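Treating backbone geometry as a discrete language has practical consequences that deserve illustration. The sequence in question and its structure tokens are set out directly beneath this paragraph.
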Amino acid sequence: MAAAAPPAPVGKGILLKADPIAATFRDEVKGTLEQCTVRPKLVGILSTSSAPSKFYAEFTKKQCEELGVEFVLKKTGAALDPELGEGEGVEDAIIEANTDSSVHGIMVYFPIFGPQQDHYLQQGLNFKFHYNLYHNVRFLEPRQPSTIDGEVPPPGMVKSIIPCTPLAICTTGFLPYGDRAYGKTITVINRSVLPTADPYSTSTEPLAFARRSEVRVFSEYNKRPRRTAEKKTAAQRYHPRHAVHPSQMTLQEVLAVSDVLKTEWLKDGCICLNVAADKNFEKDIREKASIYIPAVGKVTILMLLRNLLRLQQYQRIQEEVQAKDTAVPN
């Protein structure tokens, strides 16, 4: 049964903070860690001078150390030395981490080069270690990235991984589970195409994905971004205010003062989430929003660690299956 929603001041929307939500999952993660015979190891790969990526890496390290998770931050390129290029050496670092048997999860801090090259790098991550790998299916076979739909995992199958930021956003704690986003209009304002939009676009109609200079539209009938010609037309026709005005939910993920959303652009009664470290909504946001979540970082990290523990479990299952497959019968 859903917990009671926190009371809101008269005339203002609900202010939902991350701390009470994070506390529940912190206890869950702690309990799981206590049962681990091997301490999980997460490798972070930071290859740019991006301040948001650096902040995220340092915040992740702090949370991991507090909970007893081994976190190794591998710096390459401009993150290691300002004289080096942005992203230099990142692919080699991914390959090295992919082949390290002591690693249970790999975290690459995007964006690096841009959508196309970043997608290539994401595909280079070993799916066994990818804590943020999105599958539009419910279950996976641990030995290979095959897929099956359904409600209960068949024998030998395990639950797929949902990216930690969307998972944190969906974990409100007081609303009942279900298809709450079905048929809703949602706008995501992001600095990277990875990996937030896809999990929402499977159940929303439509979803606008704004990246400062362009607005991509996902619909119930076409979950893929528009083609080049259509994108140019949309970029000329649309501004982020055009996307957020009809939206029942707006997710703001961009770290820049110039990207603060004006309250007057928003739809009355909408839900607003700030996923960035800085405040990207105006102070009077609760005059328009029915629910306002000012930060989700603490919950995001716990979802990351939850995924990491799941990956560690899957790797153990894989090893057991491989041992059975290679066992010589008596």
Summary: The first strand starts at residue 14 and ends at 15. The chain has two domains: 37-166+299-317, 179-295. The chain has ten helices and 13 strands.
